[in-house]
Design brief:
Length: 226
């Protein structure tokens, strides 16, 4: 069997930037073990598989796999999948609708850009978790918990300096850990560690913004964030 594959640098303005994702269009779904084996061999943070949908309400079914597991939401591989459809598969519409394990996700053309429409997933504040501070090697000023722990720090410098213990991060009861702070020349910065999913540190993570945007929007009183 021969399968087409594209490797796309998502969230990038030049080659070798952003976050690479593999995109593999399929005529029909392969078994899960084969999908995971392909993703493991690609050894990228995400491999996206897309199949034309039988559902008239959406255009394609989309699934994402890390080198070790399937995930329920991924931003950069969704963006990469839409890019492949628009630029390399002659998909002529201005909007593509994906059915995923997180529901329907839309990507719309806006000039030369692609706009992701993703769900808002606010996290709940939790009391200080000693194991999280120990795993990060630094104590955050606030901790939120949803799919991931979100550790909020006082400065961009603190976020940049974090050197986590990946074994301790992988042992936590979440998919991964986001660290974030107000930015020096932007609204906020973030990093994402998910070693339990085969991603020690992701270069840039779209799905974490489903939680980061509600938090920083409320904290900064802004509807548009950079």
């Amino acid at each position: 069997m021969r399968l087409p594959i594209a490797q796309i640098d998502a969230f990038a303005s030049a080659p070798f930037e952003g976050n690479p994702a593999a995109v593999i269009p399929l005529a029909d779904w392969l078994d899960d073990a084969t999908l995971l084996a392909i993703a493991a061999e690609n050894n990228l943070s995400e491999t996206a598989f897309i199949v034309a949908s039988d559902d008239a309400e959406v255009d394609f079914d989309l699934r994402w796999f890390t080198p070790t597991s399937e995930v329920v939401l991924c931003g950069h591989a969704t963006l990469a999948s839409a890019h492949v459809l628009f630029q390399h598969r002659d998909y002529g519409e201005g909007l593509v609708r994906f059915q995923t394990k997180s529901g329907e996700l839309k990507v719309e053309r806006d000039g030369k850009r692609l706009v992701l429409d993703f769900p808002s997933l606010p996290a709940d504040q939790v009391s200080r978790a000693g194991e999280l501070g120990a795993a990060l090697g630094a104590e955050p000023e606030q901790i939120l918990k949803g799919r991931d722990y979100v550790a909020i720090f006082r400065s961009q410098r603190e976020v940049a300096a974090i050197k986590p213990d990946m074994k301790q991060i992988a042992a936590l009861d979440v998919q991964g850990v986001v660290v974030t702070a107000r930015g020096d020349d932007c609204d906020f910065v973030s990093r994402y560690f998910a070693p339990a999913a085969g991603i020690p540190e992701d270069p840039v993570t779209g799905s974490t913004h489903c939680t980061l945007i509600p938090y920083w929007s409320q904290r900064l009183g802004k509807k548009e964030l950079f």
